[in-house]
Task: structure prediction
Amino acid sequence: MNDNLIPRADRRHRGTHSTACKCPEPVYVRPAHFKPLAGEHGRALRNLMHHDRKTGYWQIRRRVSADMRFIFLRKACGRKRALRPEMCHLIDALFVVFVSTVDLATDIVTLNISKLAEALSPRDVNGQIIPEKAVTVSRVSRAIQLLCLFGVIDAPATEWDLMNGCRFPKHVNLTEAGWQMTGVNMDKLRAEQETRRQAIRDGVLKPGETLSLKAARRRWHETTRHRTLLGRRSRAVEGKLRRRLEPLPFDERKRQVGERLLRSLGPRADQFSSRQFDKLVWQQLYQLELVNLDAPETPPPLH
Result:
């Protein structure tokens, strides 16, 4: 008999590794420095979470996973069994993150799936994610697929960029059914969103241009994709430059970074003093991680 086999009575192990959920009851607490949500968005968050003054901890007040929608539509969605407790806890915590990070005008959750998993993962005293208790991206992805199946959220198809050969981060939208689970007044919520879109129209768009909810979502996704491409391109360029300059002596690195910065500034270089230009060069060196402990000179104050 194979020694790696565990008796069937232990259903939480397969072979010699555990298949138990690393974080069965994730919790998300909105950071204290975040601006409080107003209107129906704030009401939705208060409905989902409350602060227990006796214990000092935040607790789930409204469990959206217990909504009758997950029972009544179970057969229509192709499910035979109820949701597992781990999935219920994950959905409850996800909704808190959804409401906390949703765009107030377009219903778009501004965190992608990877960031959602990080937000729900427990952290140590230093603010670092504990790997043994982390919420995995695959687990959040399965929950997203399930919520889409029940019509609670909408996940636009991830677009493949043919030119750059990469996928964009996946963001989801809260549907009306999802908002109703939080206990908000839908008429007031839509009125507040329209007010925000009107403010966008007045301050950003061209005269006579209108902005529907669909157009606002499309513009948000286009802007996000553009920022993603710019970020990936800049990181690729910086990585290539770092690999080329790392073998060189520090003085030569600094000289080449200065030459590159001067070319990029062009005529704007006349606006800087020698001291200011030196600070910019050091900032570039730190950004590229090219400053060693044995640098021959002390950097100027960067602030």
Notes: Residues 153 and 175 are 5 Å apart (CA to CA).
